[in-house]
Design a protein that fits this description.
The complex is a heterodimer. Helix content of chain A is 77%, strand content 0%. Chain A has 9 helices and no strands. Residues 90-109 and 187-192 of chain A have low confidence and may be disordered. Chain B is of the alpha+beta class. In chain B, a hairpin with a 2-residue loop joins β11 and β12. The chains are: A mainly alpha, B alpha+beta.
Chain lengths: 192, 319
């Protein structure tokens, strides 16, 4: 956002235009971040609302960020994810694809493509689940939400070097897992 | 993204997941969330269109203060001006059931500010038109003073709110030298609702209000004391035949007052350091399609927060 400091100043006075601008700029990416982490649209919807509620509470208290709002919002989202994970440790979740499939056929030209894409997503999802929370966040922010290393570093409150190190290890783990599983499937396919 | 050559599967999985996620949130979900966000931010500051949409999702039914027999008064197509006046007067009449008994209750641990009636349905009367002003003087809006004015004029240390929800904004204040009574009106932005903060030294009398038999009187801790809270109001049902018979004439007609716990009207009373305090719903829409309660977002706990935030001006640092 242009002149984020000025925008936040206006938001602190509960300027409706400023708050709407902030919401429209960040809601989608916060939602997607939460969705990619949790794999559930309901969780994403619920936690996204909590992120922006937290923003309002902070603004009312005349506290919160003077700049780097995006990083602040993502950090709140990450904390909410941790809390939610603690609460829902024993909750049975729908698999990612159950939620994903309905709205997503339109991006694929054929059902075969859609099925293949769903297959890839499932494998990536399973592979992401095997990463540490920090590695998963780096991958989601860097490769799925396409942020720069500097942005990821700011959100995760670590150095760019540390982000690159996490990224390196995470990519290696994902690559190994996906290559093993998908190559194995391709190997078996002709005989099935 | 600087993947290595053997990243075919990984790259494809990233692409597929990114493409899927890019469609989320769905536009209607984003719009709903934005609406919710703005409602939480402003409550009353939403535009009428937004308020109407909010009402579509709302839960509380609209309320009527005055009903005409079994016919809702606001739907009567004729005499609309008189009906508006009637509704406003209804508020005044209902508020007119105040009593000022002696301060015997002050000796008790918890002051009983609300006196339950023997039933929820009682005979009453209603004045059609505008009641004649005994002095003949033109109506003057009494709430023309600023907070500085009332603080300067009052003979006691006036308390000012240090906490107010964002839905409320100061409209005006009044000071009655007789009784040393100070009233401050705060409007709920974008709605016809306002709230009145009243304070006056508890010299000889303490206001008490008769509430319905079914009214729920709740004790609310306010600093070192206990206040009382009631939600509800008397609805006036006017005898239809008498109303029709009245025609365009002004005058009193028979009515029935029925206590309803389901209205937006709220009242909180307490006594502290020899001063009587109240925060009450001062005005509002009694029949509306809009869920103003959802907009104002003021309930018992918010009133208690306002009450706890009232501090003597001598204790408030004013820059």
């Amino acid at each position: 956002l242009n002149d984020e400091t000025a925008l936040l100043e206006r938001a602190r006075t509960f300027d409706e235009t400023a708050l709407t601008e902030i919401f429209d700029a960040y809601y989608g990416m916060i939602y997607r971040y939460l969705y990619l982490h949790s794999g559930h649209t309901e969780t994403a919807e619920d936690l996204s609302a909590q992120v922006f509620r937290r923003l309002l509470e902070t603004l009312r208290a005349n506290a919160g960020p003077d700049r780097f709002l995006k990083a602040w919002l993502f950090r709140v989202a990450a904390n909410l994810l941790i809390d939610d994970a603690r609460r829902s440790r024993h909750r049975d979740h729908l698999p990612l694809e159950t939620v994903l499939e309905t709205p997503l056929h339109s991006v694929h030209t054929t059902l075969e493509e859609a099925a293949h894409a769903a297959h890839l997503r499932t494998h990536l999802r399973l592979a992401l689940n095997e990463l540490t929370d920090s590695q998963r966040s780096v991958i989601i922010l860097r490769y799925l939400l396409e942020m720069s290393n500097e942005e990821v570093a700011q959100i995760m409150e670590m150095s760019v070097g540390a982000v690159k190190a996490q990224q390196h290890r995470a990519l290696a783990a994902l690559r190994r897992r996906l290559n093993d599983e998908l190559d194995m499937e391709n190997y078996h396919e002709p005989s099935s | 993204m600087n993947h290595r050559p053997d990243d075919t599967h990984l790259q494809a999985a990233f692409d597929a997941t990114r493409a899927a996620a890019s469609q989320l949130p769905l536009p209607d979900q984003h719009a709903r969330a934005r609406q919710q966000f703005l409602t939480e931010a402003f409550g009353a500051a939403v535009s009428p269109d937004q308020a109407a949409r909010l009402n579509d999702q709302g839960s509380a039914p609209p309320v009527l203060l005055i009903q005409l027999g079994d016919q809702e008064m606001n739907r009567k197509p004729l005499r609309s001006t008189r009906l508006i006046a009637a509704v406003l007067l209804g508020v005044l009449l209902a508020g007119g059931f105040w009593a000022s008994p002696g301060l015997r209750a002050l000796a008790q641990e918890i002051i009983e500010f609300f006196i339950p009636a023997k039933s929820d349905i009682q005979p009453a009367s209603f004045y059609v038109g505008v009641e004649p002003n005994e002095s003949g003087a033109a109506y003057i809006d009494p709430y023309t003073l600023t907070l500085d004015d009332v603080v300067a004029q009052a003979a006691f240390d006036v308390r000012l709110p240090t906490f107010l929800p964002h839905t409320l904004s100061f409209k005006g204040a009044s000071y009655q030298n007789e009784g040393e009574r100070i009233e401050m009106i705060y409007e709920c932005r974008g709605t016809p609702f306002s709230y009145n903060i009243t304070q006056y030294p508890a010299n000889e009398t303490a206001s008490q209000m008769e509430v319905g038999w079914s009214a729920v009187i709740e004790d609310v801790p306010i600093r070192e004391t206990i206040g009382q809270y009631v939600r509800g109001w008397w609805l006036l049902t006017i005898d239809k035949a008498a109303y029709d018979e009245q025609g365009d004439e002004t005058g009193e007609i028979p009515a029935t007052r029925v206590w309803s716990n389901e209205t937006y009207f709220q009242q909180m009373f307490w006594n502290e350091d020899g001063i009587n305090f109240s925060i009450t719903t001062a005005s509002g829409s009694l029949s509306s399609d809009i869920n103003y309660e959802a907009i104002c977002r003021i309930d018992r706990d918010v009133l208690a927060q306002i009450a706890n935030g009232l501090l003597p001006t001598s204790q408030i640092n004013i820059d």
